[in-house]
């Protein structure tokens, strides 16, 4: 990309670690996070099934097959329904949907006999995007070559793909800014990928790094951004490689 320059709005020009100017960031009014942990879940199972009103196992005339009981707990249908409920709506922390799901979960625990289930309120740091843009421009006149939609395509039969902008595409916790810089492709953005670019003499300082989503080598998205930041990159764009995503993958 010697003649082309990329204009990719993602992270600030100087450093990816710049703090966000407060006026550009909206903070959640409140964020609700359930504090009902697995422990409570198992305690509830214990409470419900270890001390039932009638014994679960009373040989020699047991009218209940304990093996069958254990194999059916928790019920597959309930798990399926609950998971469907949680995953069919976007519920980013601090949103109305988040609150509804927290209260729904609390009510379920109460329904199961845990009267003291309650929603705890926390105030963590969390940013939401105000505006986002990703474009490729031709230097030096900056003619627009490509403008990314930043939206998932709607797929028939996939209801969640129809929730456009339910969760806008952005890097959570990323700094605010506007950057135009040359683009460097860095595979998965692992430390080994950056070391390879070093060995080729590719300069990533001040560049926008394009990396594939993916956890090969157990690498988290934040680690990709951090690896780029440590080398002085101006920004990072992460994308899902179609070959590794969705319909290109055969059902397992
Ligand atoms: C970002 O910079 C470009 C040109 O460098 C400018 O056209 C655009 O308005 C800027 N966007 C924001 C949000 O500042
Ligand atoms: C890498 O690029 C940056 C920004 O263009 C420049 O300041 C720096 O000197 C370059 N480093 C090397 C080793 O060429």
TrEMBL record:
Pfam families: PA
Keyword line: Membrane, Transmembrane, Transmembrane helix
Transmembrane segments: 32-49
Organism annotation: Jimgerdemannia flammicorona
The keyword Transmembrane helix is annotated on this UniProt entry: yes
A GO molecular function held by the record: carboxypeptidase activity
Keyword Membrane part of the UniProt annotation: yes
Protein name in UniProt: PA domain-containing protein
Residue ranges occupied by any PA domain in the UniProt entry: 179-246
Organism classification: Eukaryota, Fungi, Fungi incertae sedis, Mucoromycota, Mucoromycotina
